[in-house]
Amino acid sequence: MSELLEIYDLDGNIIKTQKRDEFYDEIKKEFKETGKITKQVKSIRMILLNSKGHMYIQKRSYYKKENAGLYDKTIGGHVVAGHTLGLTVVKECHEELGFPAVVLTDEEFQLAIHSTDASIIGLFKKIDSIQNFISIRKSKDGDFKQPYISSFYVGYYDGSIRFRDGESIGIEVFTLEQLRERIQKEPEMFTEDLKFMIRRYEKYLVPINKENRPVLGYEE
Fold first, then answer.
1. pLDDT tops 80 at residue 210
2. Least crowded by CB within 10 Å, which of 60, 75, 164, 220?
3. What is the pTM of this model?
4. pLDDT confidence tier of residue 212, bands split at 50, 70 and 90
5. Regarding predicted confidence, which is higher, 163 or 177?
6. Which domains does the chain have, with CATH numbers?
7. Neighbour-count burial of 59, counting CB atoms closer than 10 A to its CB (0-12 exposed, 13-18 middle, 19+ buried)
8. Is the Cα dihedral 17, 22, 26, 27 positive or negative?
9. What is the pLDDT of residue 166?
């Protein structure tokens, strides 16, 4: 059964709810005919690290219609109609990675990160929200540029991870420096989403220090 999504215009006004497959049929037709898309949905995008600051990077399945075989952020997901952003993060971690997670405020995150066993539960915080975030989807039919109302998250987890069959070939673990070097050498092997997130949010992609206190505080 296709998910039901809330559909918004580019100003963030809700238009209707619609089945996911019907929405994608419509916007792909619109993009093919006009070269742009005038509707969007809400989504979450996450990068997961362990306490050493190593990132879990997904390699997408070769059977995916878009960005097949490319290295990508840990998780991306649609916000189903009636669901909150936080619930979507928790749901995606459970369904796609196989572990329990919680989304915390900045203050809660700072406290929890050094008082919680990260091998038992993943700890996440929201770091940004972008209206009309343009995600470039590569396919055999050419690039497909899709706008999203997208919220971005980072989190820590030290336990075991498993990707759901068919969604991913698996994961590779990178330090920030290793990932930068790999992207520089083979940019075609990485999604534009991941490249964007590495550039924009690198200050968050750091280890927890030896005193088990976070070193990723954010200041405007």
1. no
2. 220
3. 0.92
4. very low
5. 177
6. 4-204 (3.90.79.10)
7. middle
8. positive
9. 59
